[in-house]
Amino acid sequence: MEKVALSQRRVFFYVQHLLGIGHLARASRIAKALLARGFDVTMVTGGLPVPGFPGEGLRTVVLPPVTAGDKGFSGLADAEGNPITPAFQEHRKDLLLEALRLSEPDVVIVEAFPFGRRQMRFELLPLLDAIEAMDRRPLVAASLRDILQERTKPGRAEETVELVKKHFDLVLVHGDPGFARLEETFPLAGEIADRVVYTGLVAPPPPAESAETFDIVVSAGGGAVGKELIGAALGAARILPQDLRWCLVTGPNLPQPDFDDLAAAAPHGVSLFRFRQDFASLLAGARLSVSQAGYNTVCDILRAGCSSLLIPFTAGGETEQSTRATRLESLGLAAVLPEDGITPQELAQQVEKMLARSKPDIPPLDLDGADRTAAILEEHLKRMVGLRSCRSA
Hints:
With 393 residues, this protein is an alpha/beta fold.
């Protein structure tokens, strides 16, 4: 008989954030849903620490952090900004493999890879090989956002398909297929269709009412690349009527000197914060959200149902946020402003237009992706254990 009882259900969840905190935030929501279903979750993180993440109740393994060497993700740097060395890579790989061995998981979730995070191949390929060599191989799933970065280098998509077929039982696409389908940004999706499962968007639960209300909430995601947006918002606040209340959330990764400079420049009626735990509640009470178009921010906006002005992140050839923003604009759920050369005057003009518009009607998109992900994994794990029991009987 299968010796591991379903009640144990140990999950080993790898997530690497490099520039923003979106990957970590989405993975943390999923991990919380897994905990609620009785899974024992070990979260392995490899980026700079972020207050409040990955959350309470999780076992955590913190690898020596790496970050994106630049906005184009072309290299990796350590916590001090130095390029990582082969010795650093070897050390991280060894720590990751040891964490896997100690965890003895029933489920392994790898966030983004092999569709993204190619920079982490030095440790993820050995991890996948180690999983294949285990006496009791766990269920292996890729955790994937709904819209991918478009790839231009030949052979990349074929390599991804090969890795999925060799190592992964499931590709969990965290989206509503009525909004975006995997094949629209990954053209070879048909070759792995038997492994693809749509979970719905991983949005937060409906927010509680906030103790504070603002007319306009401006957010810069993790904050590593949002200084220009926050600066333009400060300028726009000086141009527009002074009775408007602004909340500017810079993100935890904005360097402290930059935050201090922005805070010193904030006019009357503008409140500046690094992070707000009640961000979703602030959106629910706001007349307008101004933000980049990252996955988690858009999920917060859709859950809150507020009007939205999106400024997609496009540095380094990034296409994912532009694709998402354009789709939302076509549905009448947002207006879009290009990131390049954004000025206070331009932003003020767009904000004024958006405040004059009526609140959008949010279509019935599936926003319960965290709970659905946990249910899907539970279902497939039961199926796997049942098959093993039949074979050993």
